[in-house]
Amino acid sequence: MRTNPCTVEIRPLSIRDEALAVLRFLAVVYALLFLGVWGRSAKGGTAAALFPFQTRFRDLSPTDQRMFRQVGEGLVEALLLRSVEGEFPSAQTLRSDGVPPFAAHPLDDGAYRWTLDVDGNLIRYHGAATLNRNSFLIVIAEPDPRAPDPSHRAMRSIDSLHRRLDDGTILDVGIWMRAGPPPEPISALPMTQGWSQIVLAGDMR
Q1: Residue 152 DSSP one-character state
Q2: CB neighbour burial string for 123-140, b if at least 16 within 10 angstroms, e if fewer
Q3: In angstroms, what CA-CA distances link 29 with 32, 77, 135, 152, 190?
């Protein structure tokens, strides 16, 4: 008995998908390097003064350190999509794509409710704690095209408080933490609402 052969249609990747594939590979390499920096910063380095609204990564609990790393991974993916799409993805998009921490780790299942808030050049992803956890906040500031920051144009290297998009645009970024659920609305100055910016050894002034 003869059977009809199965026909499989192979479609070429779209330009968008190809760009995402290449950028995602670079993002993974960058994330691995950056996580290595986090580990080194957490283990060593000389003590430095903190601003009143800052908290050292190495002083966080193991649970919050793990969450901080997940937030960093999510930030890398959000910036990747921003480079390709021209705008930041929603929290729902990142969750659907399985990006941590938007797509919850089994240990954090149900612990956070992530949303995106865009106010002009200020972009904020906030993870409201729904269980007995600390809330997290990603703050991204895009440069004002009407008043570019001259210090950004002079930057030759990027630290963990800045990110460079594919087109060369440098963004200010920060990861913040707060005990319990976040206030609504979240202020443009998180430190006035009890948020603490998490810093690495190399970020301290």
Answers
A1: H
A2: bbbbbbbeeebbbbbbbb
A3: 5, 12, 28, 24, 31
The tokens for 180 are 């319990």
What is the token pair recorded at 128? 């409201």
The domain locations on the chain are 15-203
Identify the CA nearest to 198 among candidates 2, 66, 58.
58
CA-wise closest residue to 135 among 204, 194, 87: 194
The beta strands (E) that lie in the chain are given as 54-56, 112-119, 122-129, 134-141, 162-164, 170-179, 196-199
For 118-168, how does the pLDDT look when each residue is reduced to its tens digit (9 = 90+)? 998 999 999 999 878 999 999 999 987 777 666 666 666 667 788 888 888
How long is the chain?
A: 205
What is the model's pTM? 0.73
